[in-house]
């Protein structure tokens, strides 16, 4: 999904629901999960700096989408984990991972003409898993659906508290 | 060792180097149709003849309907030289109605003379990408706002830590307004 808002809504929903079970998971930690959902789309830097331009400058192959994979996202999560205080590292690692994985999973359900998704598990494997093709990357209704669920969950949790 | 500012900076630099290496590795990957990684516009532009008879998946904007023709944008670097442009591909067997200007994703067999015999096509509606970027930027600002309210930078260690008292600018403003009213 090109609009990050859907991904932010999904991560917000998951983390807010988990806060029902884990008391330590307060609003600040929900934010960490949302930040994790942004990690794979750091590849969108390609809109500013073209990968082929980097290739030409370095003389070696290069693709920003490497970060939009399990391996790339994992290393980026570690960066976030190193940056925070020692006491919060374990929680931040788990929440950033949760956010990043929710993004990769949501994108692996995108509709493709070939019926095959992208190399989500790279560098473990280049395998493109079959995709059920639930939505297009340009479907705006999805933002409405994920947003409505996020708002409903927010009020549910507020009410329970 | 990762609790001092120097240790953090070193660790972040090391991790960024690994991330960079991963993106180089990803760039080196070549299409692997047996794994569902089909050649795309870049691969077809670079070596059109070597993909004849293979299954490919490309996306392009429709520039003709009788027969269906799509313009596929490509960019690649070969022997240190940067190439970019559009590749015109004729698509046979498109089973959906398409109009010029629409974006079409096609999966099928690549033939000689830059044709694809489609097995499946997906029409991608033209959307306002500017609106998409604005919505995405809003999501970024929302998350950044929440981060600033809940977390702060410890200048001594260079690390982020949770605020003891999260900032509540909206509630504070609301309270202030009520105080002024009262």
UniProtKB/TrEMBL annotation, chain A:
The chain crosses the membrane at residues 64-85, 92-114, 134-157. One of its GO terms (molecular function) is hydrolase activity. The keyword Membrane applies. It comes from the Archaea. Keywords: Hydrolase, Membrane, Transmembrane, Transmembrane helix. The keyword Transmembrane helix applies. This is Metal-dependent hydrolase. It comes from Haloarcula taiwanensis.
UniProtKB/TrEMBL annotation, chain B:
The keyword Transmembrane applies. Pfam families: OB_2TM_halo. Keywords: Membrane, Transmembrane, Transmembrane helix. The chain crosses the membrane at residues 126-145. This is Uncharacterized protein.
């Amino acid at each position: 999904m090109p609009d990050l808002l859907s991904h932010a809504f999904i991560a917000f929903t998951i983390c807010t629901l988990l806060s029902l079970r884990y008391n330590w998971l307060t609003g600040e930690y929900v934010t960490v999960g949302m930040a994790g959902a942004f990690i794979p789309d750091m590849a969108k830097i390609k809109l500013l700096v073209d990968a082929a331009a980097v290739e030409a400058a370095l003389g070696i192959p290069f693709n920003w989408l490497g970060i939009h994979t399990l391996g790339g996202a994992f290393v980026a999560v570690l960066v976030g984990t190193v940056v925070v205080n020692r006491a919060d590292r374990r929680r931040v690692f788990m929440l950033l991972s949760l956010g990043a994985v929710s993004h990769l999973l949501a994108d692996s359900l995108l509709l493709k003409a070939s019926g095959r998704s992208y190399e989500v598990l790279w560098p473990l494997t280049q395998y493109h898993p079959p995709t059920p093709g639930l939505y297009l990357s340009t479907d705006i209704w999805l933002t409405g659906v994920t947003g409505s669920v996020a708002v409903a969950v927010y009020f549910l949790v507020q009410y329970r508290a | 060792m990762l609790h001092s500012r120097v240790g953090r900076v070193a660790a972040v630099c090391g991790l960024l180097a690994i991330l960079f290496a991963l993106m180089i590795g990803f760039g080196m990957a070549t299409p692997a149709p047996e794994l569902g990684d089909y050649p795309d516009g870049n691969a077809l532009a670079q070596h059109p003849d070597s993909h004849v008879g293979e299954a490919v998946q490309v996306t392009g904007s429709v520039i003709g309907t009788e027969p269906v023709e799509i313009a596929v944008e490509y960019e690649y670097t070969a022997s240190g030289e940067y190439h970019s442009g559009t590749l015109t591909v004729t698509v046979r067997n498109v089973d959906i109605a398409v109009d010029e200007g629409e974006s079409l994703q096609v999966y099928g067999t690549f033939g000689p003379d830059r044709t694809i015999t489609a097995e499946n096509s997906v029409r991608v509606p033209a959307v306002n990408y500017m609106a998409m970027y604005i919505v995405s930027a809003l999501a970024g600002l929302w998350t950044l706002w929440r981060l600033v309210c809940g977390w702060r930078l410890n200048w001594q260690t260079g690390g982020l830590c949770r605020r003891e008292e999260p900032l509540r600018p909206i509630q504070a403003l609301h309270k202030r307004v009520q105080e002024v009213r009262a």
